[in-house]
Structure formats: C-alpha cells, structure tokens
Amino acid sequence: MEKILSKPTICVITLTYQRPEYIKRAFESLYKRAGCRFEHFVFDDHSDNETRKMLYVLKKKYGFNLFINKKRMGIYKSFYWNLRYLPLEYDYYVKLDSDVEILSNNLFTEMIENFKYPERIGGATPRSEGIRNIDRYDSPIQFYGGHAIKVEAPIIYGCCMMFPNITFKTFKRLQERDIERSVEKWGIDSILYDHAKKIGKFLIIEDLSVYHIDNTYGQRKNNDCYFTDRKRWSRIDNEEVWCMQASKYIYPRFLERSAFDKIRSISATLEEFLSNCLVFARDKKMFGKKIIEKQKEKIIQEIKKPIYMKTMYKVTSPINFRSDPNIKHGESKLFAEVPKWANDNPRVVVERVEVKDETLENLINFEEQDEQDLKEIKTEEMSEDKTLENFDEIEERDEQNQEEPKTEESKKDEKGRVIRRCKKCNYTTTSLRRLKTHQNNKHS
Q1: Per DSSP, what are the bridge partners of residue 202?
Q2: d(Cα 378, Cα 442) in Å, to the nearest integer?
C-alpha cells in the first residue's frame, strides 16, 4: 500500500497599519487565489478605529488570528515583537504585505513546486507588478517545471516572500530589550532575504504575479502621510511625495522637476515648501528675494549650530543590492557632498547624517582650556593688585609704566615656539589667539 503524502502546511504572516481599503483587497485575493489551506496570522500596528473595525469584520469572515499592538511600533519592531506568536511547525512561511493583491491563481501551490529545484532553496518570491524600477536588474531566465525563474537575481520586490521551515526556524530573534533599543536600518524584506541567501538560492518566479496595489506612486499619491511619517526612503517618500502634493497645490500651473528640487533645498517643512512653490509659480523675482532671506537665515543658523556637528552624506552599497564599481559591496562611506556617481544610482543608498567632527571637537576643548587659562591669569593679576579697586585702575597704571614695544616675537621658547608679548603689559604667550583674547579682556 502506497504511503499517502500529507499536504504541506503553510503559515501566512501579514503586518497591517491603516489603509483599510488595501487590506480588504489583499485579504480577498489571498483567500480566493492561494490555492490551498493555510493558517493566517495578522499583526496590526495600532491602527485607527476605521482600520480595526475592518479587521474585525474580515476576521469574522475568514477566521484568521488577529493581534493588535498596544502602541505604534513601526514595521521593523512590530515584526520582531510578534515573532513569538508564530509556531515553528509549518512547512512553509509566507510574508504577505497588506497592500498586495494576488493575481495568479493557486499561487502558493505553484510557488511550492519550485522548492524542488536541484539546489537548496532559501526563499522565493513571485513577480511584483507596480514596483518602481522593477526591471532595473538584468539576469538570465531559467526554466524549471514549466516555470520561468531567476536564480541569482538581487531582490527588488519583497512584498510576497515564501520561505521553507529551515529558513524561518533559523531566523535570528531579538530579545525584548534589544527590540526596544533597535533602529530600523534596512527593511524587514532585506533582512529576511539576506538570511534566506545564507540557507540557499533565492528564486524570483517570473510567471507568477502579485500586484502592489495602486503601484509605488499611486500609493504615495493617495496615502502620502503614511509614507512621509515613516521617513524610510528620503528620495521617494519625502522628496517626491512633496512634489506630488505641490503639483496639486499649484494646479493647473506646472513646474519642472529641477524647479521643485531648487525650492525643496530651501524649504524646511511641507507647508513652507507648498508656499514657496506657489510664490515661484506666480513670480520668480519674488521667489529670488525669498531665497536671499533664506540664505541669511541659514547663515545665522550655521553660526548658532554646535561646531562639533557636521552634515555629511552616507553612501552605502547594501549587500542585497547589485554591486557598484565606485564602492566596496556592503560598505558605507561618508562624503561632504554627494558624489556624482551616487546621484540617482539604484545600486547605492544615500542618507544625510549629522556626524561628530573629532577635529572640531578637539578645537572646542582647546578653546575651553584657553578660557580656563585666562581665568587663572586674571586670578593671578587680581592677587598682585589687591590694593586697586578695579581693572580700570590696573589699565591706567599699565599705560603709565608702558615702555616702548620690544620685538619679543622673534624670541622662541625651548620647544621652538614663537613667544608673543602684550604691548600694554608683561603678559606673554605662544598662542596668537590667547594674546588677542587677553588684549580684548584686559585692555579693550
């Protein structure tokens, strides 16, 4: 009697936050086109009442497991926090985003067929339609079991990812204290992808499709705050979402992208950006005056800015991106200005960061030491002139006893440093800055 093989068990993981209209479309397509039974775990990141009501309606209809965070955590922390609720007994795990509609019928059963590939498979994903620059990587198409696959292509869409049990079971969990202290650097998709690559090959199945609802720009047009509040991709979520909003604000007027970029460079907030765009569209001369005023404000702010903080541009070549000849794969470098080769380069990530300049920090410490030296000098002078009531009397006495200036600057101490002498008193120092500070405090 032949042994009856049991059907593989599947666990689907979905993180939700706001956007109930997307969640509804995603869940309806999931339960319609999965092609097999599965267990569904939904983790909501403290959405508003409208979204939660929708989730409870869908839970009653489909019977999935629903967990709601007590406070907003963000995708990165929410994923790690809720891993504890997922059993490790399933054959396959699917991370399905809440804004993804499944287009191919029998998606999960079709995907599982590819895990019998001759080499070990650490993960797989179907083709995701509606992702920005989705075809920017070239890699050969292979064929297996009737499927068109890419075996070694870098991940460019991770909104629907399937992993075998070994990948998910060995994925590193974080302790509660580590989750609280952690900062999202890369998306969960990238982290899962990197781990899957350690297990085996990662497949992109080109003949199976899901749809990133509304596509990349459509989502940002209709849910701009959702993306700008996350502050994940500055180029797309902040720069381009602001341009989208401004284009609606000045409609039917039109501005070139170069104009938007110029206006963005002098605008600190969205409200200011919208106002500046309107001014530019109406009167460029008036906008020129605003630029001059802004530059003056910037100069004042730079003066007030702590000297030990410096704005730099961090250019990173993520290990899961295609390598770039200008930077070592997986390495990060700091630049004072964004290199030309890094501008709009899909192979690198550019971030603007505030870094501590050790040289400037040492300079501050040196100036603080100068101030301390001046205090000690004043204390010594005060002790020598106890009979005088104030520094005005000291200056008057020094001026009466002042001799003709001597060329003491030509003298040097035992270390070869030039000795400088005050022209109005006998104070000497090897530092020109200390001498000027002394003259300002004592004789000005």
Answers
A1: 123
A2: 9
Q: pTM of whole model > 0.70? A: no
Beta-ladder partners of 420 = 429
Residue ranges covered by each domain of the chain: 10-214, 233-305, 306-356, 361-443
CA distance 263 to 257: 10
CATH H-level superfamily of 10-214: Spore Coat Polysaccharide Biosynthesis Protein SpsA; Chain A (3.90.550.10)
What does the alpha-carbon distance between residue 234 and residue 414 come to, in Å, rounded to a whole number? 56
- DSSP letter at 83 equals G
Alpha helices, H only, 283-342: 284-304
* Strands 10-16 and 160-164, sheet pairing: unpaired
Residue 252: is the preceding peptide bond cis (ω within 30°)?
A: yes
Angle at 128 between CA 122 and CA 130, to 5 degrees: 155
Contact 257, 277 (CB under 8 A): no
Would you tell me how many other CB atoms lie within 10 Å of the CB of residue 356?
Answer: 10
Q: How confident is the model at residue 391 (pLDDT cuts 50, 70, 90)?
A: very low
Question: Tokens representing 37?
Answer: 């039974």
**DSSP state, 340?**
G
266-273 contact pairs (CB < 8 A, 24+): 266/290, 266/291, 266/294, 266/295, 270/228, 270/242, 270/245, 273/242, 273/246
Provide the Cα torsion 10, 15, 20, 21; round to 10°.
Answer: -60
- E-state strands within 88-224: 92-96, 100-102, 121-129, 142-144, 147-150, 160-164, 201-212
Taking each helix axis as running N to C, give the angle between helix 257-264 and helix 270-282, from 0 to 180 degrees, rounded to the nearest 10.
130
pLDDT, tens only, 185-242: 567 888 999 999 999 999 999 999 999 898 777 777 777 777 666 666 666 677 888 8
Q: Is 158 helix (H, G, I), strand (E, B) or coil?
A: coil
Residue 294 class from Cβ within 10 Å (0-12 exposed, 13-18 middle, 19+ buried)? Answer: middle
| 370 Cβ contact list (under 8 Å, min separation 6) | 431, 433, 434, 437
Measure the CA–CA gap between 209 and 107, rounded to whole angstroms.
Answer: 8
Residue with tokens 């199945």: 205
Between 122-131, 176-185, 338-347, the lowest mean confidence (pLDDT) is in 176-185
